[in-house]
Specification:
The protein has a four-stranded mixed sheet, with no helix packed on it. 13% of the residues lie in helices and 9% in strands. The protein has 187 residues and is largely without helices or strands.
């Protein structure tokens, strides 16, 4: 591997641009799915009478984890899933709607807690997030940011979805990457 070398002149200097990181050969794709307000009894792959053929097909081709902890709140569960850590330890002890000013209840994932996307990116994975984010306070989810707690600020390369707890199904407040966008078409 050639390294950059600075000589006395440009002609005596050698530039070097390292290759971008690549995923290891044969490394799997990773699809992580979080369903809000869904339990084991709601999915066909766990014996439900409710038909969920697409979810069942994904479950049959991948790994299913059944030993886990969730909370009764979406923000806290999202924070734990994104970081692999206890939700209080990463600043999300309650809903992300506000920052209480107290440790463990800051309303967003602390920078000292890396997300799965932040861990995978340096090793060549490209990370995409679709859907509900809801891990930043309302004061930080508007068009002016700040964007450090948004998906692109937490290791994702692209994002399409909504930032807060909910959005109107007929006139959704959508975000593409770090930009609020109009919903496509009419409903």
């Amino acid at each position: 591997m050639t390294q950059a070398r600075i000589g006395k002149t440009v002609a005596e200097s050698t530039p070097h641009w390292p290759a971008p990181p690549r995923r290891p050969e044969g490394a799997p794709n990773i699809l992580l799915v979080l369903f809000d307000d869904v339990g084991f009894s709601d999915l066909g792959c766990y014996g439900s009478s409710i038909r969920t053929p697409h979810i069942d097909r994904l479950a049959a081709r991948g790994l299913r984890y059944t030993g886990f902890h969730t909370t009764a709140m979406c923000s806290t569960t999202r924070a734990a899933l994104l970081t692999g850590r206890n939700h209080h330890a990463v600043g999300m002890g309650c809903l992300a709607n506000f920052d209480s000013g107290f440790p463990g209840y800051r309303g967003k994932i602390g920078k000292d807690a890396g997300t799965l996307a932040e861990m995978l990116r340096p090793h060549g994975w490209r990370n995409y997030m679709v859907g509900k984010w809801h891990v930043v306070p309302l004061t930080q989810s508007g068009p002016a940011g700040p964007f450090d707690g948004w998906p692109l600020g937490r290791g994702f390369d692209r994002y399409y979805g909504f930032m807060d707890a909910e959005t109107d199904q007929y006139a959704p407040e959508l975000v593409r990457d770090n930009t609020h966008v109009d919903a496509p078409g009419t409903f």
